[in-house]
Amino acid sequence: MVRKFSSTLEARLDEIITSRLATVAPAVTLMAILRGEIILHRAWGWIDIDTKKIPATTETLFDLASVTKLFTVAAFLQQVSAGKVTLDTPLVEVIPEFGVLNPRPMDGGQDPHSKEVLPIPDTVKGKAVDTAQVTFFHLLTHTSGLPAWRDVFNVAGLAPMPPTQRDPIARAERWSRSLSAIYNYAFVAQPGEEVIYSDIGLMLLGEAVTRLTQRPLDAAIREHVTAPLGLSSPTFNPLQNNVARENIAPTENDPKWRQRRCWGEVHDENACGVGGVAGHAGLFANVRDVAAFGQAWLSHDPRLKIDPTLMAAAVREQAETDGNRKGLGWMIKAAEGSSAGEYMDISTYGHTGFTGTSLFIDPTKQLVVALLTNSVYPGREAPGKFELRRDVHNLIGKAAV
After folding, report:
1. β-pair partners for 325
2. What residue ranges define each of the domains in the chain, with the CATH number in brackets?
3. Are 65 and 284 in contact (CB under 8 A)?
4. Are residues 60 and 44 in contact, defined by beta-carbon separation less than 8 angstroms?
5. What end-to-end distance do the CA atoms of the chain give, in Å?
6. Angle at 279 between CA 187 and CA 41, to 5 degrees
7. Which backbone phi and psi does 34 adopt, to 5 degrees?
8. Which of 66, 157, 236, 250 is least surrounded, with the fewest CB atoms within 10 Å of its CB?
9. Residue 322 per-residue DSSP state
10. H or E stretch including 361?
11. What's the predicted TM-score (pTM) here?
12. Looking at the predicted structure, is the pLDDT value of residue 2 above 60?
């Protein structure tokens, strides 16, 4: 049963979203679930913004970007619940190669936007990190001290061929080259010292899932997370998995590296460079399945096979630096300036994706909101993504009583 917002609220929502289709995101889908009932399930915009012959629908798949991390985390926490590993297990016990270069030097990292190597701060010059000290808790809370980002795609090989063509470099080879580089990257902080949101850490968590399940990461997520929940749309490399391009929202034009617009291939360069499957990005899905995944967490769905105590800990603050609050893989709502808006409780948890996607869950209101957009379509630096998220979440959060 679909419970509707009032006509006034629906009209306001249409105004908020349609006014941004030309400038922020040409395609938008939204699903909100309140106390177990769907209250919104809508789509706006176009797949082909120039010709407007293919409307976006609620079945449209979006590049989830970092929302992928939540699915990787779920697969990993299942392994914790099964007793294969603990949160305090050192990473080197599952991935011994991570500790081959030990101690590991420290540097200033690399800027993920400009891609420039950053200067080494005086506070870390000449210092090193004992890699054996890095635990899975550190990866999950982004306190490993690993860099936020490194240009892994440049060591993986040349830019992949368009997704409808055969790539001359096998995915396994791309990933092997990338892991070899990751095992040698310098740290930017000591483990446990501070929250530094790290894609590199989640790439390693994805590799840990592969080793613990003895399945490729995409198969592990499908078999352990999405299939048990009855979610049919989530997929890596959708064009290679029989999804029509017309059912996928395109993202950014990439004239420098791929020399094409990303449409049916992951926007994130590192995920693309390693073959489209990574722990930090690469998953595509429709809005219904993203919301259903959120509802499964809210209701502690036993099909996830994650211990309820561990699920509760995952969505509670475990680490914080300068207001940046982290659970176990989940982002916990910031006290100020959150994309979740002003009307969701401080206990709200979720995640955002760089492409314009987000999932937020307010346990006090029993509210789940999945908002999928392709706001990088005009360019990754185009403004308005944060404001769109805030306005949508404020409207829904205030009305959800």
Report:
1. 320, 332
2. 7-67+234-399 (3.40.710.10), 71-219 (3.40.710.10)
3. no
4. no
5. 18
6. 130
7. -120, 120
8. 157
9. T
10. strand 357-362
11. 0.98
12. no
